[in-house]
User: Fold this.
Amino acid sequence: MKNLSKATALRIQIKKNAVVSVDLKFPIFTLSVMDSFIPDKAQEYLNKSSIDISSIMKRIEDSNYAPQSVLDFDHEEKQFSIWIE
Assistant:
């Protein structure tokens, strides 16, 4: 049987005009409050978009927290990348 690793960290990176302006690393348990790290304006954008955070969280749980991309999106001049590793 293949030994799959389990993510131990939540990473959040924000780029502005392709330059990293935010690069954060948190313990994996903070994934449950990930939305508190996303600025209000970007949160509004996500709510209006077709991005379904609850289905993303289910996918992660179903994978037993295997390292993966959580969310990548652009909002205004910023690019958001969220992943677990």
About this structure: The chain has one domain: 9-84. Residues 53-62 form the longest helix (10 residues). The two ends are 21 Å apart (CA to CA).
